[in-house]
Amino acid sequence: MHLTIGPITCSIEGLTEEEIPLNSRQFQTEGQEADICYTFHEVEELPAPDEHWARIFERPDIQVFQHGALEARKLAVGNMQAAYALYQERDERTIDIYYLNTIKSQLLIDTIFVSCLALERHFAKKDAYILHCCFTHHHGQAILFSGPSGIGKSTHAELWCRHIENTHVVNGDRCLIYKDKEGRYWAGAWPVCGSSQICLTEAYPLKAIVFMGQAPHNEVVPVRPMQLFKQLSSQVTINWWNKTQAGQALDSLQHMLGKVNMCNYACNLTPEAPKYLYNYLREKEWIS
Fold it and tell me: Which residues pair with 83 in a beta bridge?
């Protein structure tokens, strides 16, 4: 089976179509050469990386190992005693994924399956990044509402859908940002959508990223570029344990800051909130 997500096509061996999540199945393609080849292995006990692998990072849900330019990851839920899978690279495009037979049914959970693929690592090599946001389409253009969880991204996107014509949500939780051959930024679909349950396989030219805030009155708040950069980098998935890749990611985001329209919007989440922002984006000629 082949899945094409943004600029990457990956092959999946060792699992049937019915054993991967429905949202991921939407990305199934045929006739394209795979950039990355994953082979899943069902095991009773997870193998341990041998002595050639050095552990370079650890937190309760992940251990990261390195062998030259290659990477391995032991994945868990909550703590390493609940480890469920081992991701291990044979080379930069061939990867083995060992998973416990006791969690096979859980591979149908979006986050479990996609975590096994470590896609953010491979997207970074193609200058593509996953942004925590509500990905909204308006009239053939992508507007991304980003910010911390609970700030009102989804609520504001729903208000756009109600009060601004030709608007719908593509993904309620994540978006893949990448460039086409001409260097133009696009917002693309992602197979994990959180509690929104909105996961469409659509891609549109990226016109604006709006960092959301809450306030009694609706206002686009002037901020320095450095503040926008901090907000952007805090909402993008970056493997900070890989210093080279993290540095490249920050350089790429700095470039994005100069090419993509971004602003801070503090609002009260009333029906007037989307209208105010819509008029602002139109006046700035960020959207048509």
Answer: 76
